[in-house]
Write a structure and sequence with these properties.
By secondary structure, the chain is of the alpha+beta class. The chain has helices spanning 14-18, 47-64, and strands at 35-39, 67-71. Helix content is 32%, strand content 14%.
Length: 73
C-alpha cells in the first residue's frame, strides 16, 4: 500500500495519533497469514511521529494476525 500511514477518520483524529495521544482502533478483520507493506510511511513527518505511526501499525497488524513492514522514505 502507498500511504503515509496517518489514520484520520471518525474513529481516530490524525493529529492525536501523530502525538501519541490516541491509538488505532482494534482491528475487526482476521488477516492471519497476510503481510502488510506500507510504502512511504510517515513521509515528510518528524522522526518521533514516524516512530509513533510505525509502532501503532505494527501493533494493529499483530492484533489482526498479519505481519507488517514499513518502507520509510
Amino acid at each position: 500500500m502507498v500511504t503515509d500511514g496517518i489514520e484520520s477518520s471518525s474513529y481516530v483524529d490524525g493529529n492525536q495519533l501523530l502525538q501519541g495521544k490516541k491509538g488505532l482502533p482494534k482491528p475487526d478483520v482476521d488477516l492471519n497469514g497476510c503481510s502488510l507493506t506500507f510504502y512511504g510511511l510517515g513521509a515528510g513527518l518528524p522522526p518521533q511521529a514516524v516512530r509513533i505511526i510505525r509502532n501503532e501499525w505494527v501493533h494493529w497488524a499483530e492484533q489482526a494476525g498479519a505481519t507488517f513492514t514499513a518502507i520509510i522514505p
